[in-house]
Amino acid sequence: MSVEKHELDAEDFSAKRLAVRVGRVFFKARNYGGLPLFLVMLGVFSLEYENDAVTWPLGVALILAGESTRIWAMRHIGRSARTRKDKARRLVTTGPYAYTRNPLYIGNHLTLAGFCVLSELLWFLPVALGLAFIFYSCIVMYEEDLLRQRFGEEFSEYVSGIPRWVSFRHVLRTFDCSPWLEALRRERSTLYGLAVAVALFVLKEIVSHN
Questions:
Q1: How far apart are CA 184 and CA 181, in angstroms?
Q2: CATH-assigned architecture of domain 2-208
Q3: Calpha distance 31→144 (Å, rounded)
Q4: What is the pLDDT of residue 7?
Q5: How far apart are CA 197 and CA 35, in angstroms?
Q6: In terms of DSSP H, where are the helices of the chain?
Q7: pLDDT tens by residue, 120-144
Q8: Domain-by-domain residue ranges, the chain?
Q9: The pLDDT of residue 16
């Protein structure tokens, strides 16, 4: 029995090490990981759900929710943002990091879902989110490995109380209304990109109806 348990532990360790190695590769390409999905959403015109009264309000709302989540995280990360966890100088545990260990990636999932809805390719939504979850899960494994090496017991205590993805444990905690202007300034390149992306989907909608 102990031999079987040892073999299972060894297999689990090997799987984690593989995920960390894959995550290291994905981490370096994380700014471009969503590009193939975006090109599919922008370039495919078949099997669209034609209901602008639903897709546009919902899509824009999801995009705004995703970017708001990212800006909230940026507000607490500080100048070490965008996001070099391989060079992290301090462990961030405030703001959204008091609820989830990966608010930036949750924001990315919401934004991706928004663009899927805007593209009217609702059938592609579970595919895109599934691939994104695998992509970011590997990155998270790599980042957590680095953070555990850098911060040791402090990170272990943080992990024990905060889930990797979503938690509602502290939802009723007083919301921090600290100034967000600096966070908005650091996130301006993403905001510009989102504006251009929405404009492209508007263009796609115009072309598809002509």
A1: 5
A2: Up-down Bundle (1.20)
A3: 19
A4: 47
A5: 11
A6: 2-28, 35-43, 52-77, 103-119, 125-151, 153-161, 181-186, 188-208
A7: 999 999 999 999 999 999 999 999 9
A8: 2-208
A9: 81
